[in-house]
Each structure stands twice: as structure tokens, then as C-alpha cells.
Specification:
This protein is of the alpha+beta class and 184 residues long. Helices cover 42% and strands 27% of the residues. Strand 5 and strand 6 form a beta hairpin.
């Protein structure tokens, strides 16, 4: 594990995360200096459900599964890959995690903690404004997708009344922001 994400390169960072194209290369370099690079093996828990999470994780390489546990079963509600992120609400409101996040393969993540975000907010407000805009757009799109799906109801989803669990799982996926496969 490296202490810095600077070796990723600011231009490559902006290219990898298209939602951040508003950042200049110089601003991306400043942001990278505040991030921590995590090189993690497959199967490593990044965020434990119920534990305090205060960071957003940008997925540079590999992938992360988001799951809910019910007893001994794990219900996968999303899978995220390079160019996406997890933990975004914790960036502005650190709180216990509502889901567990585990690497699907050897993965490289870039984390930005709430404390570093707040420091950036004071020293480089344009950078944090871009990050907040990215988060707002992402969350708004997830909510729109979910509302459209819920408005159709289980009968219109093609799943029928007999499989309400899968319909609800699909609704959760839309909130999370992915169209991932179920672990069941």
C-alpha cells in the first residue's frame, strides 16, 4: 500500500473518472496529493457494514462488490469497476456504512477522507465544488432511475408477482447505482 495517489498522474486520473472532467490537470494533481492509494487483494473488505466510514473510494483498477448481509447470506446489490466510486455519502456525512464493500479482484482504490475533503474545501473550494457537483449528479440520476422503476411496479418490471424479492433487489440496485447480478 502506498501513502499517496500522486503516482497515478493527474491527466490519467481525469481520463479514468469522466465525471471529473471539469477538473483541470493542475486541480486533479492537488486532489491526488490528498488521496491515499490502496492496493488490495481480491476478497478484501474495504468497508464493513455498520462500521464508521468517512471516505470516498475511487476505483482505479479492479472492482468492488456492494452487499447486504441477511443472517449468513450475502445479497449483492451492486458491482463497481474502474472509473466508478463507492462511499460517496460518507465524504460529506461520515456515518456507519449501510452495506459491506469487498474487492472482486486485486484492486487499486484511491481514497479521500472527510477530513482531507474539509481541508480541500478551505484551501481549494473549486475542487470540492466539482466533487460535490459530481456526487449530486450521480445521486440524482440514481434516484430518478429508482423512481421510474418503482412507478412501473412489480408487474410492469417483467418479473411478475411470484418474484417480489427479485423486484425489490432490482430497486435496491437502482438506488445503489448499478445493474449487478444477484448472489442468490
Amino acid at each position: 500500500m502506498s501513502d499517496t495517489a500522486q503516482d497515478m498522474g493527474p491527466r490519467a486520473f481525469v481520463e479514468r473518472f469522466p465525471a471529473l472532467t471539469e477538473l483541470s490537470v493542475a486541480d486533479a494533481g492537488i486532489l491526488l496529493r490528498e488521496m491515499q492509494r490502496l492496493d488490495l487483494p481480491a476478497g478484501k473488505e474495504v468497508i464493513a457494514r455498520g462500521d464508521l466510514n468517512d471516505s470516498i473510494y475511487f476505483i482505479w483498477g479492479g472492482g468492488v462488490s456492494v452487499g447486504l448481509t441477511t443472517g449468513e447470506a450475502v445479497l449483492t446489490v451492486g458491482e463497481f469497476t474502474a472509473g466508478q466510486w463507492i462511499g460517496e455519502t460518507s465524504l460529506v456525512d461520515p456515518a456507519p456504512a449501510s452495506a459491506a464493500c469487498t474487492t472482486l479482484a486485486d484492486s487499486t482504490l484511491l481514497s479521500l477522507s472527510h477530513a482531507r475533503f474539509m481541508e480541500l474545501r478551505r484551501s481549494h473550494p473549486a475542487i470540492t465544488s466539482t466533487l460535490l457537483q459530481m456526487l449530486n449528479e450521480s445521486l440524482a440520476e440514481r434516484m430518478r432511475r429508482t423512481v421510474r422503476f418503482l412507478d412501473r411496479g412489480p408487474d410492469a418490471s417483467g418479473l411478475g408477482d411470484q418474484d417480489q424479492r427479485h423486484w425489490l433487489l432490482e430497486a435496491l440496485r437502482r438506488v445503489i447505482g448499478t445493474a449487478a447480478r444477484s448472489a442468490t
